[in-house]
Amino acid sequence: MKKLASFFMIFVLLFSLVSCSSNANNEESSSSAPQSSEPSSPETEESDNSSASFESSALESEPTQTSSKSLVVYFSWSGNTENVAKAIVEQTDANIFEIVPATPYSDDYDTVLDLAQEEQRENARPALADSIENIADYDVIYVGYPNWWGDMPMILYTFFDTYDLSGKTIAPFCTSGGSGLSNTVNEIKELEPDATVTDGLHIGSSSASSPDNAVSEWLSEIGLAE
Q1: How do strand 196-197 and strand 169-176 relate by DSSP bridges?
Q2: Nearest C-alpha neighbor of 80 from the set 118, 51, 109, 58
Q3: Angle between the N-to-C axes of helices 109-122 and 154-162, in degrees from 0 to 180, rounded to the nearest 10
């Protein structure tokens, strides 16, 4: 009877040891398994999204390098002309270049109006912050600007003085509160006499946030629709 009890005790002890070893292996396996990554923080998602945006200002300082033979060149102070420029890019697959003054304009509306009028009186040529190295690669140049005091901002004159657009097609577009294109298209024809200058597009400031239809009609009228 004592032998039977002893045998039973040994059996229980062996079973306990096997069970403990199995649990230990399971725990080790669980702790060594790769952990799932935590969801991205809002800051990370915002950073990732910003890289996929249309164009940052840093990238817009030089034309995008694609096979396109057309380029949208624009100057925008309030953002209205920029909206139209982007609509043209979307409908033509053109590259884009933002005219940026070497000395930034004030953010104050009245200050900019006064400076613009002073630049006109002095026939000024504000310096450009960046340049277009491959302007010869383009056949069509879309040129956009706001109407300041019935004319293009003087930095546009700097642009036309800097680049010879002979043999190219220039398509002007303009935004303003109500002044239209004024005489700017004729001015461009005088500045670039050996270029073909199309009819211009004017979009009022109140419509500049949704210019797609106007841009589409204009591109068809001047024969540059895709």
Answers
A1: parallel
A2: 109
A3: 50
Q: Would you state the structure tokens that stand for residue 141, as one six-digit string? A: 């140049």
C-alpha to C-alpha distance for 172 and 128, rounded to whole angstroms = 19
Q: Rg of the Cα trace of the chain? A: 33
Q: Find where tokens 């609509």 sit.
A: 87
Structure confidence by residue, pLDDT tens digits, 127-179: 999 999 999 999 999 999 999 999 999 999 999 999 999 999 999 999 998 88
Tokens of 198: 């199309």
Whole-angstrom Cα distance, residue 134 to residue 62? 10
pTM: 0.72
- Dihedral pair phi/psi, residue 146, rounded to 5°: -85, 160
DSSP 87: H
Using one digit for the tens of pLDDT, what is the confidence trace for 98-108? 999 999 999 99
Dist. CA 150–CA 91, nearest whole Å: 28
* Structural contact between residues 160 and 188, judged by C-beta atoms closer than 8 angstroms: yes
What are 167-187's pLDDT values in tens digits?
A: 999 999 999 988 899 999 999
Residue 84: Cβ within 10 Å count = 28
